């Protein structure tokens, strides 16, 4: 099995100078806010016309609204938006528009430190990749194998991709991939991670262009903070991060941002009733066919209350791949690989 830690493909865009928009015509306010932004390496774009404010409103990332333009923003009846902060030197005037805009209030210069922290966090959030959690309603549904297949498809499409086995006591994602001999950090080396671990991928094993976080050979305890730090760090450098929850309880993934959660459910009455009892909790169901699991998608939807996104077919080649130490996508058939592609494209479509 070839290990590819450096690969070609669709390159992640190079770092551009981060910027933030201030909707204001107040030159003094723009000067104060601009100095705070510059202190953390962020450029400030001040706009005041309705067209420019609307364009900024529709763009991702934090948006600052000066107290002099807050009333206009309310009058324009712009849609609700995350990440708005009303900024001004008069606390009472700025607070008047907080509720109407669903915004926090930052009074400068007293709140300069708070403003800097909000901008730093907001810029990082806007630039991160997509995080996808693949879960299962019960054991034996092949969630780990499916997660590996989705990650491999994304990497083959040129997307910088990471695959994370969240359970440090799991079977070892590297073993599933036949990558147990590839050097790099596993969870025992990552258990103390906090905040943002810069260039984390350089320290991790990689296989066929997929960066991998796997359980180690020795048991270890990993807290929520470490899991969240590793996932956030990988999302900062990858277009897609695929998470395999394994046997961890649901609360163990608290504290990390997940953009899309998929629930793999066996296509049989018992599995579907179990999923229904657990509740989908915003997850997208994916139906897993196999011996004894042949219920149709419409019948499954009637039980769980949600239409399955797709059906993952049974592939008898996958157990053989594990036996001979090959990654699942190497030996899998066309229909299974197509299901992985369809699932990946549902999250990140091809350009």
Automatic annotation (TrEMBL):
Residue ranges of every copy of the Rv3660c-like CheY-like N-terminal domain listed in the record: 25-124
UniProt-listed InterPro entries: P-loop_NTPase, Rv3660c, Rv3660c_N
Gene3D superfamilies, per database record: P-loop containing nucleotide triphosphate hydrolases
Domain of life: Bacteria
Pfam family, one: Rv3660c_N
Region (Disordered): 1-20
Composition skew (Basic and acidic residues), residue ranges: 1-15
NCBIfam families for this protein: CpaE_hom_Actino
Protein name (Swiss-Prot/TrEMBL): Pilus assembly protein CpaE
Species whose genome carries this gene: Acidipropionibacterium acidipropionici
Source organism phylogeny: Bacteria, Bacillati, Actinomycetota, Actinomycetes, Propionibacteriales
């Amino acid at each position: 099995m070839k290990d590819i830690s450096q690969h070609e493909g669709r390159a992640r865009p190079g770092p551009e100078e981060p910027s933030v928009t201030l909707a204001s015509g107040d030159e003094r306010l723009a000067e104060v806010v601009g100095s705070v932004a510059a202190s953390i390496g962020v450029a400030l774009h001040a706009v005041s016309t309705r067209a420019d404010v609307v364009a900024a409103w529709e763009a991702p990332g934090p948006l600052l609204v000066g107290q002099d333009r807050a009333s206009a923003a309310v009058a324009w009846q712009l849609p609700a938006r995350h990440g708005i902060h009303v900024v001004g030197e008069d606390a009472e005037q700025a607070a008047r528009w907080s509720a109407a805009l669903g915004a926090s209030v930052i009074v400068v210069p007293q709140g300069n430190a708070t403003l800097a922290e909000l901008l730093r966090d907001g810029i990082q959030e806007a630039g991160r990749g997509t995080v996808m959690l693949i879960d299962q309603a019960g054991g034996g549904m092949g969630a780990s194998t499916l997660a590996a297949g989705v990650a491999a498809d994304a990497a083959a499409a040129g997307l910088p991709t990471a695959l994370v086995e969240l359970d440090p006591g799991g079977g070892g994602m590297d073993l599933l991939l036949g990558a147990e001999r590839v050097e790099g950090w596993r969870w025992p080396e990552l258990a103390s991670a906090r905040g943002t671990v810069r260039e984390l991928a350089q320290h991790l094993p990689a296989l066929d262009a997929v960066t991998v976080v796997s359980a180690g050979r020795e048991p270890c305890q990993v807290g929520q903070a470490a899991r969240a730090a590793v996932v956030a760090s990988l999302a900062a450098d990858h277009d897609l991060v695929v998470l395999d929850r394994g046997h961890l309880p649901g609360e163990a993934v608290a504290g990390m941002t997940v953009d899309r959660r998929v629930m793999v459910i066996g296509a049989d009455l018992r599995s579907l009733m179990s999923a229904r009892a657990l509740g989908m909790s915003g997850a997208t169901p994916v139906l897993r066919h196999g011996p004894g699991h042949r219920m149709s998608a419409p019948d499954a939807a009637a039980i769980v209350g949600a239409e399955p996104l797709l059906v993952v077919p049974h592939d008898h080649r996958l157990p053989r791949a594990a036996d001979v130490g090959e990654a699942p996508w190497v030996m899998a058939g066309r229909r299974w690989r197509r299901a992985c592609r369809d699932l990946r494209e549902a999250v990140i479509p091809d350009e």
